[in-house]
From TrEMBL:
UspA domain location: 7-141, 153-293
Protein name per the record: Universal stress protein
Record-stated family: Belongs to the universal stress protein A family.
Spans through the membrane: none
Superkingdom classification of source: Bacteria
Pfam families: Usp (PF00582)
InterPro entries named among the record's database cross-references: Rossmann-like_a/b/a_fold (IPR014729), Universal_stress_UspA (IPR006015), UspA (IPR006016)
Length: 300
């Protein structure tokens, strides 16, 4: 994962963009990172689908409108965060390919969860970028009043995969930067729910003690010990649960300010861009979700 590139905040002009900007700028302060505000525009599809000929050569002024929008966002951002280095960039074309290309040189891509998706929990652009981003992707979601989450923990799910181990180290860094607790969640699946995923077949049971016969419990303990050694001042809390992993992480997200997941866990097939657990956590979590796509930093 790059640590020298810009923090890219992708905007779409929706009602949720203000929350996306605020989260991204706050994260940039924590990272001491330069910021790039961007918006992608394309000619209205209706012009090609509902007319005999595309309106070639006619200037619709969309680029000017987007430039004005970004200029206003830039002015507000610099007024609120004068110490940050903030630039803007207008992109033209399909949103996902353009933002994916921009993410290749970024240390973090910040996007809103819904955008113009209406009632859907995750918009199509956000969902595709969470899976296809070339850098870590933060899918921003949460209450409009974020003050109550100021001291809320960072949550990370671990299953023993390399992806989840990387996520644990990144989550520890994020928690340390925020000076909040880190909750490491390992959920051991119970009986499969015959009615489908969403609720466990049985009520989730917290493991009262470590199951010494379960190597995943021992591995989770070892991971927590490593993180405590690397971040001596960090409050690392280990939760060993008998529960569906998606249900456990979504439940934990209700009292968290950030959930960190790897792109693929142990159950993912080779070639999958985003594993089933990570995909559903991005869709259903109540908090912002940070999805990792490559090795993260392993030092404070």
């Amino acid at each position: 994962m790059r640590v020298d590139g810009p923090l890219v905040i992708a905007l779409d002009g929706s009602l949720h963009s203000a929350q996306t900007v605020h989260w991204g700028l706050t994260e940039a302060v924590l990272r001491d990172a330069p910021v790039l505000l961007t918006r992608v525009y394309r000619e209205p599809r209706e012009l090609l689908e509902w007319s005999w000929y595309p309106l070639l050569g006619e200037d619709l002024g969309l680029d000017t409108e987007v430039q004005q929008y970004l200029a206003e966002q830039l002015e507000r951002a610099r007024a609120r965060f004068p110490a940050l280095t903030i630039d803007v960039r207008v992109l033209s074309g399909p949103e996902v390919p353009e933002l994916r290309r921009l993410s290749e040189d970024a240390q973090l891509l910040v996007i809103g969860a819904r955008g113009h998706a209406g009632r859907r929990r995750v918009g199509s652009v956000s969902g595709h970028l969470a899976a296809q981003g070339r850098c870590p992707v933060a899918v921003v979601r949460g209450p409009d009043d974020e003050s109550r989450l100021h001291a809320a923990p960072v949550v990370v799910g671990v299953d023993g995969s390399q992806s989840s181990l990387t996520a644990a180290h990144t989550a520890a860094r994020e928690a340390s930067l925020r000076a909040v607790p880190l909750v490491v969640v390992h959920a051991r699946p119970t009986i499969a729910n015959p009615n489908g995923r969403g609720m466990p077949a049985l009520p989730p049971l917290a493991a009262g003690r470590v199951d010494e016969n379960d190597p995943t419990h021992r591995a989770a303990q070892d991971m927590a010990a490593v993180l405590r050694a690397m971040y001596p001042t960090l409050d690392v809390r280990l939760e060993l649960l008998d529960d569906d992993p998606v249900h456990a992480l979504v439940a934990a997200s209700r009292d968290a300010q950030l959930v960190v997941v790897g792109s693929r866990g142990l159950g993912a097939f080779r070639g999958m861009l985003l594993g089933a657990v990570s995909n559903e956590v991005v869709r259903d979590a109540e908090s912002t979700v940070l999805v990792l796509h490559d090795a993260g930093p392993r030092s404070p």
